[in-house]
Amino acid sequence: MSSLYLHIPFCFKKCPYCDFFSRVGSPEQLEEYVELLNLDIRILQQKFPHNSPLETIFFGGGTPSLLSAEQIGSLLNNVKGTFDIADNAEITLEANPGTVSLGQLKGYRQAGVNRLSLGIQSLNDKHLQLLGRIHTADQAQDCVLAARAAGFNNLSLDLMFALPDQDLSSLEEDLSLLLELRPEHISLYGLSFEEGTEFSVRRQRGELTTCGESLYADQYRLLHERMNVAGFEHYEISNFARPGYRCRHNQVYWRRQGCLALGCGAHSFVADGWGERWHVPPDMSAYRQKLQNGQVVCELLESFDRQGAMTEIVYLALRTADGLSRKRFRRQFGSFPEELFPDAFRHQAERLKLVDDSWRYDLQGWLLYDHLISAFL
After folding, report:
1. For the chain, how many structural domains are there in total?
2. Does one domain contain both 204 and 330?
3. Torsion sign (Cα): 12, 101, 116, 190
4. Rounded distance, CA 2 to CA 9, Å?
5. Does 282 reside within a domain?
6. What is the pTM of this model?
7. Which of 80, 243, 280, 326 is the most exposed place for a label (fewest CB within 10 A)?
8. Residue-wise over 297-325: b if at least 16 C-beta within 10 A, else e?
9. Taking a C-beta distance cutoff of 8 angstroms, is the pair 337, 313 a contact?
10. What percent of the chain is predicted at pLDDT more than 70?
């Protein structure tokens, strides 16, 4: 395994659309959590002995930028002493505008973080207020400038679309402002109303309207076209990168490679055999108690058989522009994918294209991805 994920399940404020495991945290809770993570690092390494240096590290959340530069530095020093870190490792920290200062960003950079993922979501103050974000459009732009001043030359910016009452012109204006910030990477996510979130409740009450399918498709095509013109590669359903700036950590997931994960609510994937998925239950009290007792906190969530491994490889690969390699699939499973999933390939001949010996969805296929991929599941 060459990758490590650290989950920081604390936020300044819970966003009304978010269904990830997170909670509002005090400085004292954050300090305690860092201590728990440092225990977790040692115990996880004993559970899954690791010899090769880590190629990618990702601090996700929640809002990892609630941690100080000193806390991030202590975690990275512990990781380096326990797992080792490759000289050219990609080390990403998710950060939200409104939670970081120039001095803090400089501290992250000095601690070893070399890639920032900024949760901008919109550069329209009306939309930011609707989404429950704590920053303004001006603060988001200032955060990008501060990140550059701190020495970051690899920035990923998040933008949401398909917002209530958002038309094409409003989205195009948002994207134009984002592109003016000249990021290396952009992630574009359509708003969804996940069960249990405040947005889901408000939609049921009739307070929020969902974006219609036709408008959603038009917005997605607009984003694809504008990003291509701007020189970005659309390399995964929701992700765009300038040449050489794909997110290496996320590609580990999409290629179904091993990744260990630390923290309450985190998920690991062990690629041995047909693969195993482990998770840490989202229970902070149990997480604390087990670690303080020197116990392993992760539990086996799923053990894959051959069929499950094949299905997941197809599911993940077809999300990407690289697609599903026929040769690699046959090396793993003894047959080409179209031989093992004949009905699915036959019924999707219009959307699945064979390019350079890899099966790939066209843009319309990505728009219909959830529907089309069900034929393989």
Report:
1. 2
2. no
3. positive
4. 23
5. no
6. 0.95
7. 243
8. bbeeeeebeeeebbbbbbbbbbbbbbbbb
9. no
10. 100
